[in-house]
Fold each of these.
Amino acid sequence: MKKIIIKSALYIILILISLEFIVRVFHLNKDNPSRFVDEYKVEKWIPNQEGYSVTGNRRQNFSKFYINSFGYNSYREFTPSKDKIELALVGDSFIEGFHQNYYNSIGKKIEDKLVDTEVYEYGYAGYDLADQLHLIYAYKETFDLIDHVVLGLKFKNDLNRGEYHVVQDRMHLESPLYKKARRIKLLVYAQNIGVLAPLWKLAGRLASIGKKKKPYVHQKKETKQDLEIKHATYIKNFQNLIDIYGFDKERFMLLIDKGITPQVFLNYLDDNNFKYIDFSQSFNESKKPTTLIYDRHWNNHGRNLVAGVIYNYIKDEKTKTD
Amino acid sequence: MVFNSLEFFIFLITIFIFYWFFFKKYVKSQNILLLISSYVFYGWWDWRFLSLIMLSTIVDYFVGIMIDSNETTFKRKQWLWVSVLFNVGLLGFFKYYNFFVDSWVDMFSAIGYNMNSVWTLKIILPVGISFYTFQTMSYSFDIYYRRLKPTRDFLSFATFVSFFPQLVAGPIERASNLLPQINKKRIFNYDQSVGGLKLILWGLFKKVVIADALAPIVDDIFSNYTSYPASSLILGVTLFSFQVYGDFSGYSDIAIGTAKLFGIELMSNFKFPVFSRNVAEYWQRWHVSLSTWFRHYIYIPLGGSRVSKLKSVRNIIIIFLVSGFWHGANWTFIFWGAFHALVFIPVFLMGRNTIYKNSVVGENSYFPSLIEVGQMLFTFSIVTFSRIFFRSESITDAFGFIKRILSDFSYKSYCHPMGYRMIDYYILIIVFVLYEYRIRKDERSPFKFKSKIVRFIIYTIVILGMLLFYDSNIDRSFIYFQF
């Protein structure tokens, strides 16, 4: 009896070690760069890291990332000056682009088209408008040198708050325990593919034993009135953020998908002379899929379309100015 | 509680430790633990259905005693009928009641008399009811045929009926095999337990890697068969053959392996049916516990093959129709059974139904002969074709599926519904078939290699395979639970 327990334990350990080795050799796990909050309270990646972002059990999407010295995934360093023309893309994971090789990003695609312009990508997964405007505010001197700033905005997700503060949930991922756990590649892999989900669920259930259960609140369907209130709140948040961190209507423009943006917000933008770039039309007209198979981020074709839309807009702006 | 869940893993380890550390001294204590565990295991789905198992246990326990205590055939038969009517009645109510009502209504509609189906009930099919009712009936049959003496130990009998590893999806055990083991004190056997763990690992591989990985493809093709070309439909039904095999044989392996951990040997249920050389051999290798059940308790009592050819053919038709109907209350299963009868009868009439009974393909050589390859491919094609009926939602869909293959034959490469590389699945199936061929001589030893290093490498590959094909989003229940 003891023999079977000892031998099973030994086999389990040896198999786990072998699997760790295999996961490392075939790079089945994704690399997680470390993040930090800088002296301006801006959350970003620790500079000069590189690695691979992996999606799926069998490495279905595999791409290289490189964090530059400013702390963002980009093919270039950010060196704005008055002598050059620069364009900044600020946004969430779609702009950050861990799902693509860093040298094939939206920024790079735009730069290839706009020969005389440098494109800087300030993308970070989870950034909402508060993060974005706070970043620009915190690095005002840098951003003042940049000629065009494009801010990615999803109305539904990015206007939940009217003031910036560091998102502690994300920063918890930098705790010593998480950092140590991330060194075990098999664990990272298992977590990413969902093998550990039942374990966490069970742990959660065990932890809640004895605790008073919250009464179940039935999620009621959102009424038209609820939606109107929500939209008004989001617009209010937008105004607040602009009041606090500023918004240069000349240089700044929003990158939006009109298809998922409510008309009331579009009217607000038009009425208040906010510039925006809409990419919905090119996506709707596309005959090829625009998102990846394994997650909802833009694929190479989707990125080409977005880059094309931004390029056309900037080109038109230039023509107007000239 | 399903075998491929964390709950079951924790449950199994706990019971195993209790069983061999604290309850090992007396057979009674071992059985008490097994019985309680089995009820917890079953009650995990729906505790209300425990009452059905308990009722079935009580009825068959007393029926067994009554059959044995009567000497006259008439009285014995009467008591046997009590068991049969009770169990078939239970099954009939929970599984077939709505089917009969609907078929009745449809029949009247066909002759122009429209009836509203007001008699159908909202009944949940209790998990495993088809399995445990057949198991308890086998007990009554064996006593009736004087193959077995009834047990007077109610605890042992209740443990036999509800033994959790095989309770919900078989193997459908015979009392003559399982009861004596339950009546005897089990002593820990290292080799037996290791054998059990190996079977559990192999069963999990078949379920997680083969069945679960193929499920989304099969579901997609069968749900949207009208929009796919014939090549995709053929692919879908072929993959379904592997899915259902991986699912059910995987379950059986885990069940047999789990029972081994408790010192109990269950009968084999699958003996590599993919390598069958004719349909008769296929039925000696597929769901063995059910096919032998039908042979012992229906086919042989009807005269089996010892009667005239005509009557034997009638008997074959009966057992295949009943087998089809056992699988589900749907005309698709009856057609599936009828189709198998149709392809079995020529083999029977040619006297080739038992020629492969005690042999395996490539018995004395490493590779099968070309003739054997041809036979296996032919048999696999026939069985796979029959699965169109088995898998389709309705008989209209089944014929629609077949019609589309026959009338609109065209080829177009198939894309996975989630966009995954299809080549991964093709390689997986080829490797799986080759490996199964390598181990084909012993279904109870999936890792029979002399070298410890080779064995270790294979364990690692098997677990790696489970990680590579694990899908957290799919329904992980077993196909045969619905039966």
Amino acid sequence: MAKIKYIEFNGTEHEADVANGLSVMEGAIQNDIPGIDADCGGGMSCATCHVYINDDEWFRKLPEKEMGEDDMLDQAFEPKSNSRLSCQLIVSDDLDGLTVHMPEKQV
Amino acid sequence: MIKTDVVIIGAGPTGLFCAHQLGIIGLKCEIVDNLDKIGGQCIELYPDKPIYDIPAVPKCTGEELTNNLIEQIKPFNFNFHLSDRVQELKNENNKWLVKTLNGKEFETPNIVIAGGVGSFEPRKFPTKSAEKYDGKSVLYSIKDKTIFKDKSVVIFGGGDSALDWAIELSNSSKVTLVHRRDEFRGAPASVQKIKELSDNNTIDLITKYSIKDVKGNGSLESVEIKSESGESKVIKADYVLGFFGLIMQLGPIAEWGLNLDKKTIPVNTENFETNKKGIFAIGDICTYPGKLKLILSGFHEGALAARGCFKYARPDEKYRFEFTTASSTIKDRLGVKE
């Protein structure tokens, strides 16, 4: 279980306890947190669960991107070097305290 | 005006198999899709990616699945209306009048929405200023490449479309290619070619920059780009091209008075009808308790929706369940000779 903080582009903060094994994306969807669309349902086939990890230390601590994630991020709205697809961030106790920022929009 | 039993919106696997089921029970259908090819997400998002959870098919790619489904409905000779989009629905005397963007009209008692997550549209530049030039000098696809001759063209993106057009247009235009990172997702041969063209100064290659603003006075004059650390550059531009892949938009479906739950359409699980009589929704676009966004679920949903359509298309007939192994009627419809 990890407490994940989701911050919308307008600054609205949401906190959710997300069970281990779910993705950060699923944590948002299951808790009705707006700002993450996840059109493809977690298949790394769209780029609508895009988030920024603004904290450098957290960004480095996250599991590395798999092949294809950066390619998909090219197609996201305003990708940056601290962008991730939240469907690829699988929750474990190690992620307790992670904060993700949502982009202005997903599509 | 084309009269038919069913209009299917979406030529992905779910729409294709629903068409098959309609053909099996003796109904006609017309299939509309706004992509220029058949296959939906399977062909647009993952043509080469293997799928491992199609029953009795241990492994196949999106393209193989699509080709097999096309083969499977061939006996029925259904019409496809590609690069078109259903725009308007109107109900008259229990019939739906359907109008498409390209001006086609259908009259049908049934509509099956198998629209995935909506229609694919190019992702546009995030900058507001680009909207003013949209379709004129800011473009997301190329119809006539001769307009770029001897012009300054700035291309954004790192995939095959961006690389291929940069290579192609470098013959007759001043090309600048801008991408947000050093790696490209295009084919290795194209990436190699781009590096050569950049090394011999045929094109300008700028990485780790993205668009900030487009500027002009009536007509486009330049594009300003920015790096993440805040540096910016201004590049002369007659045309700006963006190739950031496709996004999915629900589009006109949202305006037909259907109940919506986020971007999905609630249905009953008996026949996958929506809150509107004669409008069915199947595949990724429908929702109900326990819904799984799997291709196999879409197949099941399409089979049941097809029977739902039968009721409205043949109100005076009784639907009779038959197996393809045993029914001579079905074999006739499939053109099978024994």
